[in-house]
TrEMBL record:
Source organism superkingdom: Bacteria
Pfam families: Bac_rhamnosid_N, Ig_Rha78A_N
Keyword Ribosomal protein set for record: no
Species, as recorded: Chitinophaga horti
Matching InterPro entries: Alpha_rhamnosid (IPR016007), Bac_rhamnosid_N (IPR013737), FN3_sf (IPR036116), Galactose-bd-like_sf (IPR008979), Ig-like_fold (IPR013783)
Name of the molecule in the record: Alpha-L-rhamnosidase N-terminal domain-containing protein
UniProt KW Signal keyword: yes
Length: 308
């Protein structure tokens, strides 16, 4: 009986110790968990405090940003800042494009006890750096109905450490690498005033690449960019209307530290796809008789050079 009583006391004491810990949790950069492809020159950091004690509150915090995963190469840190703020904005030296950073937060509870979070990360994107790829399309005919396929094959003779695909599209798209669709979004990228700006999306495609020959495939749709149906607010008369186009940089870092950029240019192959019509208003029409099996792999050779 005494032994059971002691065990109960130990369990209770352990639980109480865990409750007393004020841990920083839910670390986010630009409101995303470990994001990649950030273009914000002064990203924002947020966190929460996990403390179930009555009256628990953060009394101060300090933020640290590093250029290495071990947390040794300090890039920027705040002073110890008193208060309950759970948002801080980066104020350090300019961040480099295509670079990964790690960060953590140390906070103090209402009793003055401190605790630190594990390291979180964020990765910068283009950051205004020049694209190596160029905008390509298959024709100047904005009234052509079928959506276009594009593909390019390339060799990877060395071991790949990491790879990122950066793609900007006038229209809508699906991106494939070695036959696998990349990402789970639909209707990317979101609408913008296309004659003023175009958005790009970043993907981690390290796992999709392989040693030997690789293939990239892109399927382009009209979206709001090339509205072929009569539309409210005259989108079919928009001054930017043109055949959908895209610009892509696939940046590969090899295990020996060397880098290579596979880019969109005139040597991509193109063909009309089985998507014979597509419109934001009037849906997508698909003719399976026109399929090109393996179009987004290195196995098919029925597409032709013709990107513009």
């Amino acid at each position: 009986m005494k032994r059971l009583f002691l065990i109960a006391l130990l369990v209770t004491a352990s639980a109480a110790a865990q409750v007393r810990a004020a841990n920083p949790v839910n670390l986010k950069c630009e409101y995303l968990v470990n994001p990649i492809g950030l273009d914000a020159k002064q990203p924002r950091f947020t966190w929460q405090m996990n403390d179930k004690r009555p009256g628990a509150a953060q009394s101060a915090y300090q933020l640290f940003v590093y250029s290495d995963a071990q947390g040794k190469q300090l890039v920027w840190q705040t002073d110890k800042i008193n208060g309950q703020d759970i948002l801080a904005t980066y104020q350090g030296k300019p961040l480099s494009p295509f670079s990964k950073y790690w960060w953590k937060v140390q906070l103090w509870d209402h009793a003055g006890k401190s605790s630190q979070s594990p390291l979180a990360s964020f990765e910068t994107g283009m950051m205004g750096d020049a694209w190596q790829g160029k905008w390509i399309t298959d024709t100047d005919d904005k009234d052509l109905k079928p959506a276009a396929y594009f593909r390019k094959t390339f060799p990877a003779a060395r071991k790949i450490a990491s790879a990122r695909a950066y793609i900007a599209v006038a229209g809508l798209y699906e991106l494939y690498i070695n036959g696998e669709k990349i990402g789970n979004h639909r209707l990317d990228p979101m609408y913008t005033r296309f004659d003023r700006r175009n958005l790009y999306v970043t993907y981690d495609v390290t796992k999709q690449l392989q040693s030997g020959t690789n293939a990239i495939g892109v399927l382009l749709g009209n979206g709001w960019y090339n509205h072929q149906s009569t539309a409210v607010w005259d989108f079919h008369n928009a001054p930017w209307r043109a055949r959908p186009a895209f610009c892509l940089d696939l940046r590969i870092t090899y295990s020996d530290g060397s880098q290579e950029v596979i880019k969109s240019n005139d040597d991509w192959k193109t063909a009309l796809s089985p998507v014979i019509f597509n419109s934001i208003y009037t849906a997508e029409h698909y003719d399976a008789r026109l399929e090109l099996p393996g179009w987004n792999t290195h196995l098919v050779s029925t597409m032709h050079n013709g990107s513009r």
